[in-house]
What does this fold into?
Amino acid sequence: MIRLSPQDCELLNRIQSDFPLDSHPFATIADQLGMSEAAVLARLQELEQAGAISRFGAVFTPNVAGASTLVALAIPEEDIEQTAELVNAMAGVNHNYLREHRYNLWFVITGRDRTELDDRLRHIQQAAPYPMLDLPMEQPYHIDLGFAL
Amino acid sequence: MSRENAINQQSLAIEVQRALQEGLPIVAQPYLALAEDLGVSEQQVVEAIEQLQRSGMTKRFGMVLKHRQLGYHANAMVVWDVPDGCVDRVGASLGEEPCVTLSYRRPRRPPEWNYNLFCMIHGTCRETVTAQLEDIVLRKGLHYPHQLLFSSHCFKQRGAVYV
It folds into this structure.
């Protein structure tokens, strides 16, 4: 496990949103935190190498950038691994978790629009003919603004 | 992949969106790096990102962390069956809790699935998350049917990464 110093936490809390758009954004962040640009870059590159950073980019608003839905499958114990791999290989799948419930595989799938999403769900049902819940977001009350450390 | 000719405005927007989905490099001048890749100016890349933000396409711009690698091992989805008349109020109220990262209304699928409100709680361990949920239920008086679904394995968190 990665050990985080208080300065790491400060850095990770700062970089999850409102990322500066100037030419040297890491220098701007470094200034705000009283660090050097080189130190900020080195530490973030290390954390990325260690697998703590998934990516430096944007989180897109569900159903604005395209269509997405949360899907749950109720899979017999012995078929879980195989089905999870199959789901991972499907285009548009971006989160895929095993959860402790009769509906045990939960993933988010996206598409350009609902038609493409429906096609993708049909493919999944053909390959994995288990009970499926299709649970698109109807109303966000609180969106992912990052993760406070 | 560098382009000899500058790409037009619309395809630039798509290329920039793609880059923000895949991830920019963690280097001193990330926008310049992408601009060189696309054969446009740094200013054009920055303007395209600002345009994505203005249009409401992005929720946030920055780094996406992997909570498991940072010691937050318990990731629980809490599903609630809240009467339709008060789901908006309860959903917003859950969203105010610091440990709640998401709060969404989703459709019920009766008879199998009667839960219409979803929230995510991340914590260092299961005991913490369970205690946080109990505290929320008592403090806010949320005595609605609910279930706590812990994740026991992550097959994929954005990109082909196995944990």
Q: What stands out?
A: The first helix of chain A runs from residue 6 to 14. The two ends of chain A are 15 Å apart (CA to CA). Strands of chain A lie at 53-60, 67-73, 93-99, 105-111, 132-135, 139-142. Chain A is about 35% helix and 25% strand.
